[in-house]
Give the backbone structure.
Amino acid sequence: MADIIHLLPDSVANQIAAGEVVQRPASVVKELIENSIDAGSTMVKVIAKDGGKTLIQVIDNGCGMSETDARISFERHATSKIREAGDLFAIRTLGFRGEALASVASVAQVVVRTRKPENDLGTELNISGSAVESQKPVNCASGTSFTIKNLFFNVPARRKFLKTNNAEIKHIIYEFQRVALANPDVEFTLEHNDEEIYNLPRTSLKQRIVHLFGKAINQNLTNIDTETSIVRITGFIGKPEYARRSPGEQFFFINNRFMKHPYFHKAVMSAYEKILPPETIPSYFIYLEADPDTIDINIHPTKTEIKFENELAIFQILMAATREALGRFNLIPSIDFNAEGAIEFPIFRHDEPIPVPEISYNRNYNPFDEELKIPGNAGRRDDENLKHWEKLYTQEGIPISSMDMEAKSSPQQSLHIGNISNSDSLIQLKSRYILTPVKSGLMLIDQRRAHERILFEQYIRSFAMNYPVAQRTLFPETIELDPADYLMLREIMEDLHAIGFDIRDFGGNTVVIAGYPADSRNENPKDLLEVFLEKYKSTESDIKTSVRERIARSLAVAGAVNYGETLSQAVMQELVDGLFACESPGYSPSGKPIVVIVGIEELEKKFK
Ligand code: ADP
Ligand code: MG
């Protein structure tokens, strides 16, 4: 029989890669302005027409490209930014995958004009759907100008998928804001349909924020500034009373790259706990700097989801730093007075795991509680509070009730438990329970319920923040559903997108899945969707619970670790840490106990 496997032509391979890198005009804008920054530009101009669908132009005054480089830059995996695998751990540039230009050129008509400052003549290159149409010398300004016309002209299905011009330009603005915030020392302009949207001179970070978000924000910011051996945190956070009803002014940057980080968001939110008007979300512009060696930016082609080696420690540091900054608004005391503001962080060593730093401050401070306003009281109250926690855990065999947990997300809790379990002391029993000693006895955690709880809260967070954390399937999967399920699915399609599903309706009871919410244990999207639909159906009679909560709950059940699954130390540790970072670690989303503690006394009795 003849051989049947062959390599895809580059143009097809590029189009497949483009599916990941170029989702919409805004992705093109992001990639191009990031390239301009990497090229050392001090001025970047963005011009868009019709939401970027007709035209995107990015002009910079950076280092430009030689004739040959201009040509090669459109090859896949062509980059000037890394040379070998080792460089991946020391990335300081925004790009490094060498995929963007190849991807963009495979789905659009591209003209680039570029000149290196030291050359007299520049070069102009025309590419359409990956095919080079012409290259010739030109007179042009030094720097680079990219013109992208008719995005997806050769992929009608994707072009159809684009939203209205208004919606698309909004996405462009978001991407623009992110890069502009990361580079206040670069001049930026943005123009849409001949109208200027932003004209940002080079300035301080605070002024950049004001230029982007309006004068009103000026008096409502305070700076945040902390340096430890693991991370340096700077930037600005907003006053609680300035908090908005809808998200939009929450920004994290890592080494000057915008990132989404729901877990760190939670750290900031916990610092604001109880001082925010109901259902509002504070503004923040927080810049982390960490050794590139300790982060992984390579997990997704768009590079906005980033993994940190020291996530738990940074969580604590970030929360403490935010509280300290809020303290400057005189709203809450920043740090426990007994500790005199001295936070001790360990020296960073590459070969050793970082222990969770212990920060003590008075979580229970309530500005309206007269008695607590006396600083000297703070420490003592804290101890009492700890004792209270101890009591909670020593009630033999009684699971932690989420109702008992007024202070359920208190850091004491996560620190306390975290410290005890942060070792190799996790044991899996019957592929069902995770066992670990705690101060007051032996703690048993139901692995499946723990994971359900973690996923549930993560999904609820995704909804609230509009931050779906998704993973993509290797190949989009076509699924035919029975007509009722299909109709039900169509009704909740929007919500499923908001939680991280990339599902498209293909009509005739058929959908195509190209991505699904991250962290699901079930990595078969078809199976995940089917189990989810089953669960979701069974909640339909529950009219008291909102659709989104039912979705989160059903999806958590569908994606959680199963009983009978053997877990590695690392996975168990992740489950334990994740669980105790939850708002309500005591009960599964359907109300069943997750944690049981068998007290020392009870054990001792048994040995009598
Ligand atoms: P990456 O940014 O990951 O290296 P790209 O496909 O985005 O990959 O770009 C490929 C290469 O083209 C870059 O490494 C850089 O050398 C060059 N390049 C792209 N844009 C510019 C620009 N605006 N100015 C100078 N060089 C550029
Ligand atoms: Mg790039």
